[in-house]
Write a structure and sequence with these properties.
Layout: E1 12-13, H1 17-24, E2 30-31, E3 35-40, H2 64-71, E4 117-122, H3 131-148, E5 155-161, H4 176-194, H5 214-218
Parallel strand pairs: 1-4, 4-5
Antiparallel strand pairs: 2-3, 3-5
Helix pairs in contact: 3-4
């Protein structure tokens, strides 16, 4: 397994845009200076594929004869011998290489030993203009999430970058300093997710402008009530 890859037995990937919409529609669960975490209990939406052939044309219509010819079984005796050698058997079609179609639309069977946690990444270009920077950030998210996967709640997890890293502090598009900074911040964020913490996000009244800066700087962290159990999942 290369760096940044996910262990499919523990943590799957969110691939459908509809699943991203579902997760991002939930209130933000955790946030840090550069990242936000959303979580939705459940499973990805099932893939909908046609399970049968198109309906036949009504009997007596102009297309009935054509449909009968198209769907008629082949009864002619055909030779199975090839000019180049012995019969190699029936080859596997391209469609047969895909995952089997669920027996009923809307139902996705759970494979034995399959993941019950899925991860999605949102790293906008406005927060990471260089492709190498986006790759670095995504790799760190995957690595930290994979290390914490056994301790995370089941469901769909989406991590999105919510603000850019300071280019004055990290002038290089990809550097060890940037990697360690992103990794440390993500570790702290996922450690909180493992402990089941949630940020209290006050709903913003409609039409009110977003005010940041003074209120954020004046916020004081609450003192800890006691020593917390060590649930660090640092990779």
């Amino acid at each position: 397994m290369t760096a940044g890859d996910l262990d499919s037995s523990l943590l799957g990937r969110i691939v459908r845009p509809a699943d991203y919409v579902r997760v991002l529609a939930t209130p933000m669960r955790l946030r840090s200076p550069h990242f936000a975490v959303h979580h939705l209990a459940g499973r990805p939406l099932p893939l909908k594929r046609p399970t049968g052939r198109p309906p036949m044309a009504p009997e007596g219509s102009a297309n009935a004869v054509a449909d009968a010819l198209v769907h008629a079984p082949v009864t002619a005796s055909l030779s199975t011998e090839l000019s180049t050698g012995a019969d190699l058997g029936s080859p596997t079609g391209v469609d047969d290489l895909q995952d089997p179609v669920p027996p009923t639309l809307g139902e996705t069977p759970t494979p034995a030993g399959g993941p019950d946690r899925w991860l999605g990444l949102v790293v906008p270009k406005r927060h990471a203009r260089r492709a190498v920077t986006r790759t670095l950030v995504k790799r760190q998210i995957r690595n930290v999430a994979a290390a914490c996967a056994p301790q995370l709640e089941p469901g769909l997890w989406v991590v999105r970058q919510r603000s850019p890293f300071d280019t004055k502090q990290f002038p290089s598009a990809a550097s060890d300093a940037l990697k360690e900074a992103a990794r440390a911040e993500l570790r702290a964020l996922f450690d909180r997710a493992v402990r089941g913490e949630r940020d209290r996000v006050k709903p913003r009244p409609a039409g009110e402008a977003s005010i940041r800066g003074k209120s954020a700087r004046s916020a004081k962290p609450k003192p800890s009530s006691g020593p917390a159990e060590d649930t660090s999942c640092a990779a």
